[in-house]
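re: ur question from yesterday

yeah so i grabbed the chain u mentioned. its 160 aa long if i counted rite. heres the sequnce exactly as i have it in my notes:
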Amino acid sequence: MLLLMKAACLERLMELNTLGAADSLTRFLEAQFVINAAHLDSIYAAIGRATTARVRRNFDAIYAAGVDEYYPGVTGELIEQLHRALGPQLPSIAARFGSDAYCYRAGWPDLTAVRDGDVLFREIKTSDKLHRSQLETIANVLLPEGLTVDVLQLAELRMQ
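ran it thru and got these structure tokens back, copy pasting raw so excuse formatting
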């Protein structure tokens, strides 16, 4: 989700970045939101104006800059599908995230799936419980947007 939001507002982040546009490709979104706190409304507006084609181009540029190691397995097709499914909500999701970006940078569910325009967030647990960051992100960012979040508790299958 952070990569999706970043791809949706990359041009605006580049305009605002005093270290140069290339820094916007690799700097984490939460840092850019904090650094540009006075410009968040324009960043959210840019997210709202982003087309799926622009988001895909920006994703490709971000991924090519070496960010792929932080987001392994994310594909351009997934980013496109997420944008098509969440595009109208994305500025609001970004605003919730931006209200406390360092708090909400962690806690996103393990899996984000999209099919036929429906998005599902799924957290997988084995023996541990939800962490505070997960509880806060789910409760304050995802659920208020009406998004589906499931928590699955895995248990060992014991054969008798």
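noticed a couple things. The longest strand covers residues 118-125. also The two ends are 42 Å apart (CA to CA).
anyway ttyl
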